Description:
By secondary structure, the protein is α/β, with parallel strands linked by helices. The chain is built from 14 helices and 14 strands. The strands form three sheets. A five-stranded mixed β-barrel has the order 1-2-3-5-4.
Amino acid sequence: MNRDYITVTQLTKYIKYRIDNDTNLQEVYLKGEISNFKAHTRGHFYFTIKDENSRINAVMFASSARNVKFMPEDGMKVLVTGRISVYEATGGYQIYVSEMQEDGVGNLYVAFEQLKKKLMQEGLFATEHKKRIPRIPKRVGVVTAPTGAAIRDIISTIQRRFPLTEIYLFPCLVQGEQAKEDIVRQIKRAENYDLDVLIIGRGGGSIEDLWAFNEEMVARAIYDCPIPTISAVGHEIDFTIADFVSDLRAPTPTGAAEIAVPNKSDVINYLKQLTIRLKKAMEAILERKKKKLAQFKEHYILKNPLDLYAAKIQKLDYLTDQLIRDYRNIIEKKKNQLNILKRRPLFEDPSLILNKKKQKYTYLLGKLDALSPLKTLERGYSILKKEEKAITSIKDLNKDDLITIQMKDGSKEAIVQ
């Protein structure tokens, strides 16, 4: 019996061909639980989708994975859309996922909670990083859409409450795929305008409409902004990541304007209070100064000013007398020293001392002459030298030594025999 054997590769290719051309497997909707999840460094997701009885391997390439708003985790219930095909290297069938969302909770909500947890752990929400909103700002910037109720409410509220404030609008997109980059760009631009406060926000809408203010790059731009920031996104019940990272959250755009600037009537009342307090403080200072002046007037020195000089004059007299006494004592001491010097023989007859010095000089000169080697040579003696050193002992001479004989009228060399 003839049998046509085929290779494993041929079989796998045939199965792959049949599956790839099955219209029922070109777009499959699956729900299940994620396990063995792995995020590749190149951005691809590899995982398994399982239920109580079966499982299937799943691949989600980076081009699709970047659109997922949350980070998948093991145990997470998901809804996926994809196609079924065969991975020829292993011969196993798997699903190539093109879309994925959280089952039940909602894709955007999961992404919101994950980013909120991440930024909180990094300290971007910490109170110690919050900047104080100035009480009376001169310049207020607004990052929002150039049209719509939000910007109208902010401008009208600021002008009504404190018209001296200058308003700078930094128009941007507030929803859609490009909104996050536009918001960040306008925040960076606002940093160059010497602003006192920056309002960032938009009017109300669905979570999808507000999502640009939940993006990580927007949150980090707000955190890095050196200007005190007020978030004003949506309605009072709406919370975004921008609300947590801003220096202050306002429930609405109108509320942000009310927080950013004071009410002019409140400022006027405050100035009136300061005026009253200043007046009372000045009166208190004047009263204290008056009391102190009255005390000075009652001081005995002011009543008898000559008493102050009397004590000084008395002290001056005392010091003058003491100076005269010290001066006289010094003069008397010097006189006594001079009298003692005058009684010395030098002052009585200087010639006596001079004669004594001459006699001592003559005596020492004679003694020095008697000890002179030249006198010894005149008496017939001679000096023997060897190598310029005087010979004092016969032991210092050896046969054939060259010596010098010094006499009174010259010297001669000789050899010892």
